[in-house]
Structure formats: structure tokens, C-alpha cells
Amino acid sequence: MPKTALITGATSGFGRATAQRFAAQGWNVIATGRRAERLQTLRDSLGKRVHTLAFDIRDADAMQAALATLPEALQGIDLLVNNAGLALGTAPAQSADLGQWRQMIDTNITALVALTHALLPGLIERRGAIVNISSIAATYPYAGGNVYGGTKAFVSQFSLGLRSDLHGTGVRVTSIEPGLAETEFTLVRTSGNQSASDQLYAGAQPITDTDIADAIWWVATLPPHLNINRLEVMPVNQSFAGFQIHRGQ
């Protein structure tokens, strides 16, 4: 009997690559996202292994309604990949857009915990696994990271808390914390500024979406007595060097 993975934010980047990887390996994949046309394209390319649910993850009622439509064969979820998330804006806190802060909190924190809470009973029953996509921003602050970094710090700490609470259930929990990765991340953050995205990644050999999909696959397919608590991944060309120093008054 094939295992089933539910992957949020599957319309692009890490989520799409992860859906592709697991479907190719014979898993059933429940792919979720806001953009129904992209989900349909994913299903068309991967075939019957993929079941799509189109909803805004910030809408708790829509999420519950979508989960209720799952066919019986897909109701037993073995792996939850909480990938949906975003960064918005690069301004310092004192000039940031409060609406953007709230959207990041609603997406990266509130939606993630709501979906996790909804699926926990089934994950416990099946001795499943949870992979939460955090970020190196959870550990290493940078100017303009403010609320984004805070939301990812929550994801990392929540993962450790889940791991503690689920002690003895057999459920595994992992926080994967990528560094510089070339996806649509910067385009979303800069409201579609392609030149800013190109400049950030130019010559840097960043992480790719398939790199993270490979990491998720590795974590999910380890022997069931092993748990990777957190996995920090950076491209060789990026490091955590450099503190800011302001000189003068």
C-alpha cells in the first residue's frame, strides 16, 4: 500500500519539487496551494498519484472543507510537509508594512499550526512524520528580516515542542532550515522585482528546489527509529559571517 504525503505550497519551489519527488517514488501526494491552475498543471504532469486541494491556507474553514473532500484512500496521511510560507518586504521594522507582517504571521505560523493540529490524530495513529520548512533566518538575524525571521524561529521552536509532546507516539518531527535558495521567494518578497531576484542569486550557486526535495525525501525515508531534529542547509557560497557596526553618533 503506497504511503501518502500532504504537501502545502505545492504550486512552486520546494513544494512542487517535493511533490514531484515523492510521486516519482510511488507515494500518493496531496498537493495544496492557492493557485488552482498550477495545481492542475502539476497533476497533469504527475498523473493519478497526485490529488490536489486548492485553498488559501490562511482560511481555516476552507482548509477544513478541503480536507473533508479527501477520498477515503487518501485520508490516512503518513507525512505532512508544512512548506507553505512567504517573506514580504525588506524594510527595517520602523518603516515596515504592518499588513505584510500580519500576512507573514497568518501564513507562516497560524496556518501551519492549524493544519498540523487537524492532522495530528491521524499522524499519531499511523506513526507518521512531520517536516516543517523553517529557514536559517530562524537562527541568524539580518537587517529587514524582522517578522519573517521571527515566524521562522517559531517554526523551528514549534517543531522541537512537537517532538517533545509526541514522545512515545512514534511520530517523527523535523525542521529543515534552508539558506539562500533560488525559487520564487525573492520575487514574492519584492513584489515581482526580477532584477532584485537576479542580483541576489547571480554567481552565488544557491540551493535549488530539488536540493530541498532531496533532503525531505531523505528525512522521510529514514528507518523509523531515527529522527532528524533539525537540518540546516546552506550553499557553500553563503555563510553566517559578519556583524553590523554603526560608526558615529
Topology:
Elements lengths: L3 E4 L5 H12 L3 E6 L2 H11 L3 E5 L5 H9 L10 E4 L15 H28 L3 E5 L12 H20 L6 E7 L6 H5 L4 H8 L7 H12 L9 E4 L16
Helix pairs in contact: 1-8, 4-5
Question: What does it look like?
Answer:
- With about 250 residues, the protein is an alpha/beta fold.
- The protein has a single domain, classed as Rossmann fold, CATH 3.40.50.
- The chain is built from eight helices and seven strands; from the N terminus they run E-H-E-H-E-H-E-H-E-H-E-H-H-H-E.
- A seven-stranded parallel sheet has the order 3-2-1-4-5-6-7, sandwiched between helices.
- Strand 1 (about 5), helix 1 and strand 2 (about 30-35) form a beta-alpha-beta unit.
- The termini are far apart.
- The mean pLDDT is about 95.
What would the keywords be for this entry?
249 residues, alpha/beta, Rossmann fold, seven-stranded parallel β-sheet, 8 helices, 7 strands
